[in-house]
């Protein structure tokens, strides 16, 4: 078991077809006690119940600092520590550069970027006390390519911002035993793109990917488990591409 008795908090983890829930399931199967955070309508308690006994689901909006702080306090009250944080919550919007409104910009950046800031700020004090912790931030291939698949330019900017924020955290907290790393998934079949990309478009994209297929949530979950576990104990500030070779150049 790679994560025996570790306490793992995953934001945006309630969607059962999503990367977050897949990561929750894989972390639980590796011995972690998992806390799923998500919005009320996503029903995080029901998602956590699907993992079996000993896990927790809490409503938390990552764009709201007091909500993040309350979630971290509830985790500490129940489990006494936070070993792993996966900043996974994110939303996207397919829109062209000139059409992005201020409201769109705030909405998209707030979940991925502000959310990564607030939830990390909420979890870090406990990790500092423990003098250990692993934070995994979910960015996107969109940050590296400038979008082009389904996210708009503001999504690319949010996910590129996540890379910078994560590296800065890695630099600041490394001496206290806290590692911070990023994952940049390529195109992964989840609810985020279900109604945006047609089957034909997906097949077309798959032909351009060296591994010849779109990713699945477990492809990303395995990498999150690696970055959360001691297997990656000398890795911090890194970005792992999980995209089937889409970016080979
Ligand atoms: P998803 O829609 O299943 O998951 C996103 C989750 O975030 C949902 O459960 C949603 O309820 C939650 N969420 C939204 N706003 C929130 C908020 N304010 N507070 C807390 N939770 C909130 O989609 P997914 O594909 O599993 O996405 C997970 C992450 O992976 C996202 O950050 C996404 O940008 C990123 N990503 C996805 C892909 C892909 O192709 N699917 C590729 C690259 C990156």
From TrEMBL:
It comes from Herbaspirillum lusitanum. Belongs to the short-chain dehydrogenases/reductases (SDR) family. Residues 6-186 form the Ketoreductase domain. Pfam families: adh_short_C2 (PF13561). This is SDR family NAD(P)-dependent oxidoreductase. SUPFAM superfamilies: NAD(P)-binding Rossmann-fold domains. It comes from the Bacteria. InterPro entries: KR_dom, NAD(P)-bd_dom_sf, Sc_DH/Rdtase_CS, SDR_fam. PROSITE patterns: ADH_SHORT.
